[in-house]
Amino acid sequence: MQKKHIVLGMVALMSRAAACTNLDEKVYTELVADTYYNNRTEVMTTVLRPFTHANAWAAPTGQVGYWRVSELSADQLAWPQKGIHGFDGGQWIRLHNHSWTVEDDIVWNPWRLMFWGSGSVTIPLATWRSWTSPGSG
C-alpha cells in the first residue's frame, strides 16, 4: 500500500516538472512602444489624451471638475436640498461653507484630473525620445 503511494507521488512530481517550461508572457496591461506606435491614429491618440483630461477638468460635464468647485462654493449658485435625495452626505453644504475634507471627491477630483492630464503629457515625450519610425506620418 505504501509503495503505491510512493509511486503515485513520484508520477505526480514528474508530471509537474515537465508541465510548464515556456514562461514567456504576453503583455496585456500596458502598451509597449515597439508594438503600438505603428500608424498615425495610434500616435494621435497618445498626443490628444491630455486634452481629454483638460476638457473634463474645465467643462461642467459628468466629471467632478473645476466648474463645480469654483461656482458652487461661491454665493452666486446653490445646490438646494429637496428631500433626502439632494443631501448627498452633506458634500454640497460643506462645499458652500468651505468646510470640505480631504475625503470629499468634489474637491479632490479637479486636482486629480489636472495632474493626471499633466502627467500623461510626459508619456509620449519619454517614449518618443528613443523612438524613430519612418511611416508615422
Describe this structure in words.
By secondary structure, the chain is mostly helical. Helix content is 55%, strand content 0%. It contains six helices and no strands. Helix 3 (40-58) runs antiparallel to helix 6 (105-128). The chain starts with a helix and ends in a 9-residue tail after the last helix.
Biggest sheet character: none
By helix and strand content, what is the structural category? mainly alpha
Distance between the termini: 73 Å
Got a strand count?
Answer: 0
**Helix count, DSSP H or I runs of 4 or more residues:** 6
Mean pLDDT: 77
Query: Any idea what the radius of gyration is?
Result: 27 Å
- Report the helical percentage: 55-70%
Uncertain regions spanning at least 5 consecutive residues: none
- Shape summary: flat
Please report which band the strand proportion falls in: under 5%, 5-15%, 15-25%, 25-35%, 35-45% or over 45%.
Answer: under 5%
H/E element sequence: HHHHHH
A few lines on this structure:
Helices cover about 55% and strands about 0% of the residues. By secondary structure, it is mainly α.
